[in-house]
Every structure is written in C-alpha cells, then in structure tokens.
Amino acid sequence: MGCDTFYPDINGAAxxxxxxxxxxxxxxxxxxxxxxxxxxxxxxxxxxxxxGTDMTVHRWASWRWYPHDWLRFVLPWTAKARARxxxxxxxxxxxxxxxxxxxxxxxxxxxAKRNIRIVGTNHVMAENILDFxxxxxxxxxxxxxxxxxxASKVFRTASAVTTPTRKAAxxxxxxxxxxxxxxxxxxxxxxxxxxxxAPRTHNRVLxxxxxxxxxxxxxxxxxxxxxxxxxxxxxxxxxxGDQENNLKTLCAKLGLNDRVxxxxxxxDDELRRIYTAASxxxxxxxxxxxxxxxxEAMASGLPVVCADAMALPHLVDDGKNGYLFEPSSxxxxxxxxxxxxxxxxxxxxxxxxxxxxxxxxxxINRTIATFEALYRGDPV
Length: 380
Prior knowledge:
The protein is built from twelve helices and 15 strands.
C-alpha cells in the first residue's frame, strides 16, 4: 500500500490508509505500507503499531516541504528505483496506491511492468495543492491541468480505481478522462464513538480538521460572531495547520477569544470525548471528497451543518440529520446553526437519531470487504 501521507500525519487520507491496513491485517493479510520517513534519516523497514495493530512499514527518505505545516515528500526521481527493489523483494499479490503523486506513482509504474494487480484510490484534488505550491498566480491554471493529466496516466495503470463518494468519482472522471471509477466509503468503526442522547444543557459547536484555507474556518468564526447572544454558544476547534495564527487573529478581532477554544492536535480518546460533549457539528469546507470527521460526528450522535459543496451532501440529509448551507455564506451558516441550537428537545433528538442511522452505511467492515474483493478482481 503506497501512501504519500501516513502516520504520524493527521488527515483524512492518512487515517483511511491506517484503518484499512489495520483491518486487513486483522483479517489475516500480510500488509506492507510504503510511506515517507518521519525524519530524513529514519529510513528502512520497521514493524509499527498502527491503530493498535502491528504491520510492516517501509519508510523512504523524505524531506519536509516547508510551505506546508507537516508535509514530507520523497524525491520523485528516486521513487521508481526504490519501488523496483521493494517489489522484487516483497513480491506482492496486489499494489494499492493511496496517492498518485510520488510513492504511488513509482509503485504503480513498476508494478505494471511486473503484471502485479493494481488498485488506485484518489483522495486528492489538484486545486487543494495550490496553497502550498509556491508558484505564480499566472501558472496555476497550467499547474492544475498538468496535475490532472499526470494523475490520469498513473490511474490508468490500475485495474480498479476508487474514491470515497459518487460525487468524488464524477469529479475524478471529469478531470482525468477515466471511466468506471468506483465510490467506496472510507468507512469508520461507529462503535468507537459515543452518542449522548440526553437533553443538552449547553451549546457547543465543534470543528475537527486541518486549519487550512479550503476548510473556510474563517466563515465559521464570522458566523459564531453573529449567533444570538442568548444562545451562549462556544466553539471547539481541533486540529493544526498553516492558518492557525491567522484564525486566532481573526478570533480576537471578532471578540470571540472567550468563546472559542483552539485545542490543537489531541489524543483519540480526548477527541472522542469532545465529540460526545458537543451540540452540533460544523464543516464549512468546500473541498471534501468525503470527510471522515463528519462521519465521526454523526457516529457521536451530532446534528451536522455542512457546506453544500463537493461530497458533503452525501452525508447530510438536509432537514433530517442537520442542514446544508450555501458555501462561504456567513449568513446562511448562522441561520442553519441557529436552527439546530434553537430546536425543541424532540426535534433535536430526531436529528441525532438520523445521524446515527445515516452513518451505518459507512461501516468500516463493509469498506474492508469491498477492497478485498477488488484485490481479488471480484465484481463489487
């Protein structure tokens, strides 16, 4: 399994790869992960404990990309040579790449030469890379076009291509020219999360994710400033990113310092506690190919308020388990948060139960079984 981002990175693509790999190991498969080194010189093959499961991880020498707050990358011109040596040594039955950019690209090219079955999964929108590409504005259109062309070449080596939702599959097909992209949910183990169905005694909005531009957390902060004072709403923001200082500055400017808590990166146990204690989930992002965090919120019994953008409408049954709002609209987000926070206890409980029901289809065991079938070449 080739991953350009993996533990200890914290993002949706990394978490999905970790949970899929752990689930496969638990089912008796011999899983080898290929990922960037945690530090430049910490390279080699290790047994690492991921999601409570021991697995083999091959760490390739990587460098920090300093425009980004955590991203490390393997030098592209070394990937094929490294892939050749590893594939000849491990002799895998299947290669599954989680990113087509560097590691996945090298593995896919060399696996194709050896007639090894290839499965590719896309978690990336080329547009999301622009904030960290450090290229002139006039080059950005060319960059996006070239990125999708490169992605298409790598994905065409695969016998099966997946992405987390139908919307994301349509998006990938449109930009890459591929056909037959299969939507497979990233999945979660809902049993790891606890829903509190008792009446709320406080109003706590929650956001979990990377603090980056496309998440549009500034829209959420501006909505917080416009919520009715009598609701006495607080906001918990969990995660780190390059926009953290800017968001804290905006928070102070809006007079929200006593109502907003930036938790940074926290343990899984603490995160689950915060999910359970929240009143409503808010996801203002305009670039989600699924949003594992939104599924975790649903598994915690939270009504969800999400931007009507990319794949988020797949998770929000508007008016049932929460509401969709017009992307980037502070006014609409404020109104939709108010609808949840001012709902009667009966209506609020209905939304909670709808979230719990809606997340059932995203069970991680169903996801793992689907990938097992794809690895075998079975229809799904």
